[in-house]
């Protein structure tokens, strides 16, 4: 038996999460932008399996089920999958995640996300019924723990946690909010308190904003928990793009979203800095969300290799801090071998007519 998620975190271990699925699979031709629904788990399981394997090889300790936006109301709203049910997607995604996780001793997290019904003012019972359907699917597959992720409103996340907690397994809960709070202005510290009181064992932030901003928000959650005398493990799975504009609507409010985000992609060296910042903040579940590719997850694993005690398999094809450039025949490239060069590099975009930042829309409902 491999240790469970709480056993690992209770022991002070670093748990490396996986990366983003919907944006990566959209770019590869398996997810439709705008809808972002996960029917590829049924239609193209080989594509989902391959990406999961790349995250595992990069050092991920957890493989999340590809069930983002898999609530029945979201699937119906998208109109994308009239012939595939949410249960079919959940079942296929659980099987894929378990298959890959078992190849490397990883855990499987069954994930639920926010619903269209909540913002349409659906009742608590109606919204909870949607989460209950997903919970029942996950329990049939005996996943290792539950992940409540990508919630803009803490109220809905609390309902999701309350439902998932009835499954008798650990529950992690992450909000996609800024340091200013959720979409209704609830501060991060108060959000964390509500989630823990609802039953969450792990709390944190995912998606919407860049890594260092997300770490800053988790720090505020930690402060809130300490003031309330509550304890929980902390996690962070941020966006893989630079968002210095830091607005409440997140990256979806940027004019480049979703088809021109490439110039904002974080480098592997940015991820080294992020992983260290997160670790120093007391966060022990460290992963990525949209924009995080397998090489970004490998960078987390490499930065925290000493703390974890090993390097991931993917590091056999990667030299730490570009040390293999020492053998390059061009002296100016050879001079780039080493940590100092890459840590201090200010990458150019190659777009002289482009601004360094954009003006986001307000992002409020």
Described by the principal axes of the CA atoms, the overall outline is globular
Q: Please summarize the sheet with the most strands.
A: 8 strands, parallel
- Total strand count, please? 8
- Which architecture would the CATH scheme give at its second level? Alpha-Beta Barrel
CATH superfamily: Homocysteine-binding-like domain
**Termini separation:** 46 Å
Secondary-structure element series? HEHHHEHHEHHEHEHEHEHEHHHH
Structural class: alpha/beta
Poorly predicted spans: none
* Biggest sheet, spatial arrangement of strands: 1-8-7-6-5-4-3-2
CATH class: Alpha Beta
Strand content: 5-15%
Mean pLDDT across all amino acids: 95
CATH topology: TIM Barrel
GO molecular function, one term: betaine-homocysteine S-methyltransferase activity
Pathway: Amino-acid biosynthesis; L-methionine biosynthesis via de novo pathway; L-methionine from L-homocysteine (BhmT route): step 1/1
Pfam families: S-methyl_trans
InterPro entries: BHMT (IPR051524), BHMT-like (IPR017226), HCY_dom (IPR003726), HCY_dom_sf (IPR036589)
What does this structure look like?
The mean pLDDT is 95. The protein has one domain: Alpha-Beta Barrel (TIM Barrel). It is α/β, with parallel strands linked by helices and 365 residues long. The longest helix has 18 residues, at 124-141. Helix 9 links the parallel strand 4 (145-151) and strand 5. 50% of the residues are buried. It has an 8-stranded parallel sheet with strand order 1-8-7-6-5-4-3-2. Helix 10 (188-198) packs across helix 11 (211-228). It has helices spanning 5-10, 22-27, 40-43, 45-57, 72-78, 86-102, 116-119, 124-141, 154-165, 188-198, 211-228, 268-280, 294-303, 305-308, 331-334, 339-344; strands at residues 15-16, 62-64, 107-112, 145-151, 171-175, 202-206, 233-237, 285-286. Zn(2+) binds at residues 207, 289-290. Homotetramer. Keywords: Metal-binding, Methyltransferase, Transferase, Zinc. Its cofactor is Zn(2+).
């Amino acid at each position: 038996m491999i240790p469970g998620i709480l056993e690992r975190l209770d022991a002070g271990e670093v748990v490396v999460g996986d990366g983003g699925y919907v944006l990566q699979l959209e770019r590869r031709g398996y997810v439709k932008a705008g809808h972002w629904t996960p029917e590829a788990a049924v239609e193209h399981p080989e594509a989902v399996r391959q990406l999961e394997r790349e995250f595992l090889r990069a050092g991920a300790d957890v493989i999340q089920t590809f069930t983002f936006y898999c609530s029945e109301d979201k699937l119906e709203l998208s109109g994308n999958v009239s012939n595939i049910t949410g249960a079919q997607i959940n079942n296929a995604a659980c099987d894929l995640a378990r298959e890959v996780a078992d190849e490397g001793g990883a855990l499987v997290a069954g994930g639920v996300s926010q619903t269209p019904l909540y913002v349409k003012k659906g009742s608590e019972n109606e919204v909870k019924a949607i989460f209950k359907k997903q919970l029942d699917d996950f329990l049939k597959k005996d996943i290792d723990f539950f992940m409540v992720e990508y919630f803009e409103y803490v109220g809905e996340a609390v309902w999701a946690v309350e439902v998932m907690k009835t499954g008798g397994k650990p529950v992690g809960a992450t909000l996609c909010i800024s340091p200013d709070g959720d979409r209704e202005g609830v501060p991060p510290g108060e959000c964390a308190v509500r989630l823990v009181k609802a039953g969450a064992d792990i709390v944190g932030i995912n998606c919407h904003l860049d890594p260092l901003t997300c770490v800053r928000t988790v720090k505020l959650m930690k402060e809130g928990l300490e003031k309330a005398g509550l304890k929980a493990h902390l996690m962070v799975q941020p966006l893989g793009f630079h968002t210095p504009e830091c607005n409440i609507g997140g990256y979806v409010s940027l004019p480049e979203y979703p088809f021109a985000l490439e110039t904002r992609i974080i480098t592997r060296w940015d991820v080294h800095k992020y992983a260290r910042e997160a670790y120093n903040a007391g966060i022990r579940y460290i992963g990525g969300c949209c924009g995080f590719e397998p090489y970004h997850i490998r960078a987390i694993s490499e930065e925290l290799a000493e703390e974890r005690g090993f390097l991931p398999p993917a590091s056999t094809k990667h030299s730490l801090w570009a040390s293999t450039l020492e053998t390059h025949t061009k002296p100016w490239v050879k001079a780039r071998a080493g940590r100092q060069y890459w840590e201090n590099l200010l990458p150019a975009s190659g777009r002289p007519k482009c601004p360094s930042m954009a003006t986001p829309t307000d992002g409020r409902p």
